[in-house]
User: What shape does this take?
Amino acid sequence: SDSHFPVPISPSHVDYSLHYPQFFPSAGQANNSKKIQFADIGCGFGGLLISLSTLFPETLMIGMELRDKVTEYVKERILALRVANPGQYQNVSVVRTNSMKYIPNYFEKAQLTKMFFLFPDPHFKEKNHRRRVISPHLLDEYAYALEVGGIIYTITDVEELGEWMKSCLENHPMFEALSEKELEADPVVKLLSSATEEGQKVARNGGQTFPAIFRRIVPSDQT
Ligand code: SAM
Assistant: This one.
């Protein structure tokens, strides 16, 4: 249950020195000048983050994962990479938390430039749709945490879930789909399948994937 992991009372209480010691050598910095900009929600074994870490070496990024053992594995994986590659992988970290409850405890308004929801659990039954990590209500929270122009990446191998995530995003006033051209120009799009453990599994089995990639916009009645 949630009682087993600590939750910061606000984003300014997230101790960056624990996550990124090379960037923040001293503890308890309340006014971090540099902030986390990428969040991989339900990061699993962390493959995407590891790839992003070297692609964007100056960007702080974090994985959020509910399972304790998986989170510990990702922590160890990052530490081992830091030891084997001095100076690298200093910008990536992971935290055990329930993203459906605690995103506002970690990120301020407009803090994030990218959020990832890759191969989330499908929750097939109608009565369990409220457990899906993409929902109209949770998109309000994600829109709050993302800066205008920030991008939300989703992908799944479950067609029905793909349709659901796409329609939630299409119907939300604060998101608009990226164009084909923009998708092609974005190096991160290719990583959604190739760098994630789930994506690799789907590719090995020759499965199809259904991405939905949207930009945070200012709703048209506010311009
Ligand atoms: N994104 C990874 C990938 O593509 O390889 C992992 C996908 S896995 C199917 C879904 C992950 O989301 C699991 O590791 C699960 O523990 C995590 N998860 C499910 N609900 C969560 C929640 N409320 N908060 C954080 N993580 C969650």
